[in-house]
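Supplementary Methods S3. Complex input for the magnesium ion-bound model.
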Amino acid sequence: MAKIAEPVLRNDYQRSIAAYWNAERDPVNIRLGEVDGLYHHHYGIGGYDASVLGDDQAMIAEMHRLETAQAEVLLDHLGDIRPGNSLMDAGSGRGGTSFMANLRFGCEVDGVSISEQQVGFANEQARQRGVSDKVRFHFRNMLDTGFETGAKRAIWTNETTMYVDLQQLYAEFARLIPIGGRYVCITGCYNDVTGGRSRAVSQIDQHYICNIHPRSAYFKALADNGFVPINVVDLTAATIPYWELRAQSSVATGIEDPFLTAYKEGSFHYLLIAADRI
Ligand code: GPP
Ligand code: MG
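Predicted complex, serialized as structure tokens:
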């Protein structure tokens, strides 16, 4: 095992993000996770069944179904993964996508998070699911994971890249993924074509203490670090129904209107990028 740089939290910004996620117990995430034990920290895609409207528990279950559908689409883009492969979930939250990857591929997954609370929660989930030997969560920094060079067949980031410098992130991923391996990203990014950060995008940044990157920054940082996109999917239209359902639900957090405004005015995209390491 390569040596991990200490400390895991490098600066005040990272400590503030860790403090946010260590304290987070939001029903929009906890109640959805309780539906079937998969706890997500990402949004949903696909149309919703309008018959759920007005039924609180049915709306929660429907939002959870759309979030799980999003993670399935991410996993669809990982390519040919074998049970012997090892994967990494960079910014693994409470573990939802990592458990789905293990269920689908039967392989090892290492999740990393700078929230010790999330790491503890996810490892307890792994224990309850009886997969602790294959799915492990680590209090580590995705910019400096300490895993062996070339050890990861594929890595994904499911709505986590807005917390980090992309050049630093993809330099670390280029170290971890051997040639022919795959990186998949789902992210929200602002639109270079409409200009800088719109007001709605700035409101999203403020809500999560993040720094949403422009779309161009992804492709530049990927190219600079030996990653070549094979698929780019604009999921914006597919995620709008999720936000419309969430806005009408009992677990709305107040960030629904900025997301709907940003997507509908075109200042922000919900994007999937799958890239090969060359
Ligand atoms: C959190 O998911 C996602 C982020 C913090 C990143 C911001 C994402 C963008 C696409 C800009 P969550 O499930 O914890 O958020 P919420 O609590 O709002 O459901
Ligand atoms: Mg959520």
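The mean pLDDT is 97. The longest strand covers residues 268-277.
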